[in-house]
User: Which sequence fits this backbone?
């Protein structure tokens, strides 16, 4: 679709937004949101006729791109047939969505509890783990993000937690492996894996194994930096959980549904958790939906004992119809395979080639269509291009880099000293190469701030 400029309409949209919309994670008077006129596939555009290749996939959820006609049609058809119905009833769209999801989750995660998004999925997974074990504490990693609701934000390891951390949520943080910035002074992946597992064992020992209900990890952390765990780490966590009777929760809200080139990132590691949270890509974000995939053992806990949790819109028919259509589209159009192909043949090689030419790129990490560039001032010292949690003038180098991306028609995902390459899973080779060319130009701006 070709965008048709309409600045007057854009100004009206912007004025209403600024007058009435309260934006998340923002100082309201310091933001300048773009007024979006439309979107299709891997692109969106504004009212001035500027078109952007979306290397953010919304918030890493438009896994099949914007406005896929089959999913739009499924939502329209469901709206005409049964727009909504309470969660206590069996509804075709809800049942079919659960069946299709359960077919793809690893192991025996065959029962699906639906939520409205990822944070609620995490909230309910932790509630299930605590009720199943009768224990209060949950362990999570420092470099993580699990959502903005009460328990989920306390589980989160990044600075967004700080304002809401009341210190009484029963959460204990630990260091997960990350060789490039190893907290364990490791020199190899094998060392990092062994030392991270030992650190986790020590944390459990000092906290008291009998007090710990769950360990939650993003299978491959997303916003925190797309750090693929070293071989053996997740299997080691699984063994530790089994040994101490701890519930193992994998958060696949961002990494799931094709993002990593597998239906779930857990498939890369051959590990089956007790609970798996999902959202975002389950229906490409077209209608809010998330959920928890539950193992047979934990589901049995609530066979005759009521589960004390629920949501008015759990398994909403419109959201579930979108999920059914999305999963079917992904299967029919081989979207998961496309994500793996693009990562292996275009994005991975292309990003590594950029790293060789740009001194601002310290490390390239990722798989599928789930990549991060760690931007640095100095390749030898690995000093980040901007300080941790930088704002204002301290964040100027990253702000300049982001502005350069946009000036070249690329909408970037920027977090702290990183830019992430997370386009739709069905992005074409030509579109991916277009994005790499824009990144190439923008990284020249980042290079100006290297030592």
Assistant:
């Amino acid at each position: 679709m070709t965008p048709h400029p309409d600045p007057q309409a854009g100004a009206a949209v912007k004025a209403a937004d600024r007058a009435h919309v309260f934006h998340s994670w923002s100082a309201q008077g310091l933001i300048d949101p773009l007024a979006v006129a439309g979107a299709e596939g891997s692109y969106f555009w504004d009212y001035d006729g500027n078109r952007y290749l979306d290397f953010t996939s919304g918030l890493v959820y438009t896994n099949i791109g914007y406005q896929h006609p089959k999913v739009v049609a499924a939502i329209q058809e469901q709206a005409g047939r049964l727009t909504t119905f309470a969660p206590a009833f069996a509804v075709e769209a809800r049942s079919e969505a659960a069946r299709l999801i359960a077919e793809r989750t690893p192991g025996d995660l065959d029962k699906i509890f639906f939520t409205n998004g990822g944070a609620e999925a995490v909230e309910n997974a932790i509630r299930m783990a605590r009720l199943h074990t009768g224990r209060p504490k949950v362990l999570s990693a420092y470099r993580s993000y699990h959502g903005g609701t009460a328990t989920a934000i306390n589980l989160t390891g990044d600075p967004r937690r700080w304002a809401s951390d009341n210190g009484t949520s029963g959460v204990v943080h630990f260091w997960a492996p990350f060789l490039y910035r190893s907290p364990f002074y490791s020199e190899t992946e094998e060392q990092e894996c062994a030392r991270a597992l030992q650190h986790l064992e020590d944390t459990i020992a000092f906290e008291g194994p009998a007090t710990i209900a769950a360990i939650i990890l993003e299978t491959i952390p997303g916003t925190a930096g797309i750090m693929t765990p070293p071989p053996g780490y997740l299997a080691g966590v699984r063994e530790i959980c089994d040994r101490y009777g701890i519930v193992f929760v994998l958060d696949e809200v961002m990494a799931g549904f094709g993002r990593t080139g597998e239906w779930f990132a857990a498939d890369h590691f051959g590990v089956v958790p007790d609970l798996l949270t999902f959202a975002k890509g389950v229906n490409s974000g077209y209608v809010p939906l998330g959920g928890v995939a539950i193992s047979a053992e934990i589901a049995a806990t609530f066979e005759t004992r009521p589960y004390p949790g629920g949501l008015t819109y759990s398994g909403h028919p419109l959201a579930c119809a979108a999920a059914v259509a999305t999963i079917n589209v992904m299967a029919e159009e081989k979207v998961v395979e496309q994500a793996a192909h693009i990562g292996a043949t275009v994005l991975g090689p292309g990003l590594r080639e950029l790293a060789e030419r740009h001194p601002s790129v310290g490390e390239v990490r990722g798989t599928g269509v789930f990549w991060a560039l760690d931007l640095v001032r100095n390749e030898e010292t690995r000093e980040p291009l901007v300080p941790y949690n930088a704002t204002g003038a301290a964040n100027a180098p990253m702000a300049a880099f982001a502005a350069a991306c946009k000036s070249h028609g690329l909408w970037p995902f920027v977090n702290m000293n990183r830019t992430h390459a997370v386009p739709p899973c069905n992005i074409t080779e030509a579109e991916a190469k277009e994005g790499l060319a824009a990144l190439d130009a923008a990284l020249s701006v980042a290079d100006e701030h290297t030592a």
